[in-house]
């Protein structure tokens, strides 16, 4: 398998934000002239679109190429995800500069970019906003996706909701009209991990085509008992009766059970033996013991499951050569259930009792119970028109549109009345029953209604052939009605509230071409949106105004050496004020302000037909302003938890080794040390992981892979969830997999 998409800014053709399922390959020396839909410029290439000339949908509705977008954009293509063995979208996102993922089952789609995480990162599905990121989004199987697209920095101007650090958009695969295509995947690996997928595209008529993909992942989990699995079904019907009109009707149906591994408890090392070194350091004398490594502390009937159905309809009409109209309608239905022992606390002294009144002996792990059921209905529509014209003799493209959605979110939850529900042994927790406890039932109910409507504009003015000015503005009407009910069913007026907000945001920046293939840009962007954390956890009195953020960014994007070397470099500075952060599973606090600055570099090099290199590095400086997460902790000026100062990725591919149908590849990922709590008393050690793979092209369109991930079996901590301060999440140890991929 040749390294067909070297860069995370994918070199595969991306048209209207999507790459074709199986693009026809031109002879190597045949020159191809392609006019990109929605793009103001003509692209000329030899057999494939240059990486910086691709036009991903996440960049906005102007149809700008990556080179001419005043922002940092990364695209991880389907082929690249399959080659590197990324089973889910979060794995792919981690390969972009400066991106890390959380892995916490309580926040299953949590990403970190530019010093911000949780709901300060926006997650989209085919450009659609589902709601607060950490509460409603689920991991998506990569087999069903055409690409994972990343936009760095605030994007409230483009999407209207809660993006400060960045946005991730998971794009599904479109049907093809040229011929039938089929794809399949079968993989087995460590921890009894299975990945399977089958899909295909078929042209029903000359104007109607269908694509359907189904994938399943399952595993015992690297912490045995976590048992994650998912089933993802997507289907798309594409109708194109003329060159001027396109209708795309799609459906995504996902059922899953997240990993129910909530972490490994931190213990007082002065009271225990068998300390594991190289994982963390603590000014409080906390650590992890060998007896607790890879232990499962949850209950036997643990649940973190969901059912999600999302039908969407996209209509596009080229009314005249200079006017295009696009409409997107969607409906989201989702049910989610968590029922676990989530919080783990090491008991260092006597005097503690569980919910049944039993004394908890020192040295045991005390646990809670956390039950929450979510039911979400959301319906929305987005309509915009694109106008191509001239302004004082200069080319101009203008977007005018509006969108609206209605979101009804019902959250039922329950906790035992006691501090601790029960306790288990540190070394041999076993699998105990879930149980029922006083105070847990009947549940407390919190229905929330959010209605949003927005008016947006985008514009690109081509002042000269090598100078563009890009701008955008958005004004929103946001209505929030959060209601809380007590366990006896009575309305809790003290914590319930209604709010009406009118955020307005803009961005503006020039893009200048130094040469045809080298561009520099600068951009200033604002964001005013719900104040971080999880808006559906906020109660009366915790905020009165929306959060405000602003970002300045400058950068350079270049393709040199006849397109064999592509690189991007960006410097940014972000400040966010009036923000909330999560301080527990069901609580938030005002953080005041957070500032973040840094740089991100990406480089992709094709040395020759056999060797290719790809790498990136990011530096992030992120600190809180005035912030008191509790009465006893002053975190003002502290490092933001889980934010590494440095992340780096490097991949090398040797294709067609010695003329054989064999590819060899290796990758390295480095994450520097991070703080694990608001007080900065806990430090998570840095780590470097090395992965290797071999690919044998057994037959045309059929490739067999063998992989070893974390070949050095490095033990490391992936994440410290500040909502669960007494535990940390271990990363995966060494694992292997064997897979077969086929595409025809």
Automatic annotation (TrEMBL):
Region feature (Disordered): 88-107
Source taxon at top rank: Bacteria
SUPFAM superfamilies named in the record: Porins (SSF56935)
Residue stretches making up the TonB-dependent receptor plug domain: 67-167
Location of this chain's protein in the cell: Cell outer membrane
Coarse class of the protein's main subcellular location: membrane
Positions of short motif TonB C-terminal box: 727-744
Pfam families recorded: Plug, TonB_dep_Rec_b-barrel
Stretches assigned to the TonB-dependent receptor-like beta-barrel domain: 242-711
Membrane topology classification: Multi-pass membrane protein
Record keywords: Cell outer membrane, Membrane, Receptor, Signal, TonB box, Transmembrane, Transmembrane beta strand, Transport
CDD domains named among the record's database cross-references: ligand_gated_channel
Entry's family note: Belongs to the TonB-dependent receptor family.
Protein name as it appears in the record: TonB-dependent receptor plug domain-containing protein
Organism whose genome encodes this protein: Acetobacter conturbans
Taxonomic path: Bacteria, Pseudomonadati, Pseudomonadota, Alphaproteobacteria, Acetobacterales
